[in-house]
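Can you give me the bound-state structure? Components:
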Amino acid sequence: MNIRIGTEEDKRDIIGKYPYTKQVLGEDGYLVVAEENENIEAFAWAFVRKIPAPIDKSEMFVNVIETFEPKNQCKGIASELIKKLIELAKAQSLYQIRAYCDINNISSHKLWEKNNFTISPVKNQNGQILGSYVALLL
Ligand SMILES: CC(C)(COP(=O)(O)OP(=O)(O)OC[C@H]1O[C@@H](n2cnc3c(N)ncnc32)[C@H](O)[C@@H]1OP(=O)(O)O)[C@@H](O)C(=O)NCCC(=O)NCCS
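Here's the bound-state model for the whole set.
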């Protein structure tokens, strides 16, 4: 599996094959793909922003990470994508990497835990836990 930065053509291929990804793939940002035999088997898309808090630092926010085929899951592919994102974020001297996962998404929680991210569950006004922000201090 080759882990590399994705191109605009890769982005078009991913959206063509998996149309729902259009909603989570933005314009500016980092596309990282895992490719085998010229097929994109997994991808992540992340963007850089000022941290929306009263501190003068920037973060990478991972909007989406996915290993498409269930047969390819649990083989460490998404973890390799995360390693690549960490490398890119460090090269930009960013403060942290964050992402959000729905509370019912067990595999996503396990993925971030396995990669040493903190897990911070968030509640709505009724006290119901909706999901977790995950974060890695760089
Ligand atoms: C979450 C996801 C990206 C993980 O991808 P992956 O390539 O399997 O990741 P890794 O192999 O690095 O696995 C990380 C851990 O997740 C857990 N995991 C992954 N797939 C799982 C599954 N189907 N069921 C239960 N746990 C799973 C495992 O604990 C695994 O670690 P382990 O194999 O050492 O036990 C993948 O399951 C996926 O694409 N899910 C659908 C999309 C999604 O929910 N994305 C995250 C939110 S944007």
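A couple of observations. The beta strands are 2-5, 30-36, 39-50, 58-67, 96-102, 118-123, 129-137. The mean pLDDT is 96.
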